[in-house]
Amino acid sequence: MTKDQLGSLIIASEDSLYHVAKTLLREDADCADAIQEAIVSAFTKLHTLRSDEFAKTWLTRILINECYDILRKQKRVVSIEEGDLPEKEAAGQDYSELYEALETLPDEMRICVTLFYMEGYSIREIASILEVNENTIKSRLSRAKARLRRELEPESCSDRDSLQNG
Fold first, then answer.
1. Is a pLDDT exceeding 50 seen at residue 101?
2. What average pLDDT does this structure show over 41-48?
3. CA separation (Å) from 103 to 5, 20, 126, 139, 165?
């Protein structure tokens, strides 16, 4: 793959890269940083790409590693403004119920859900990206769906109960 082809792939994958980064990182600025670092890393490591057909998977793996690097750095830094929770809560209210439910999932489940349902990767591709067994991906997706169902179901159950009782 040439650098021009990689550049075209990056431009075509812009939304996908953002969704993957947003799955792991909360702040848009962190997502942008991770994407930029992944792009730089992809250009410098282009020689490690074994097959052009796996270029998007390879790029996604680089991005996920960059996201994890940012998360590791953030864990080492203790925020001086920890009492600033109202702003975070207010920002969280702008998201849909489903997005909020996704946020409650552990990272490994959330990334599987994003890659499978939002980005359209196959289980085999996700297993390759995350470097885990395909059965692990199936298990994570199954557990994630069950947790999301439990998270989102109480409201629909109480609505059904009030309709039946009322």
1. yes
2. 92
3. 34, 13, 19, 19, 33
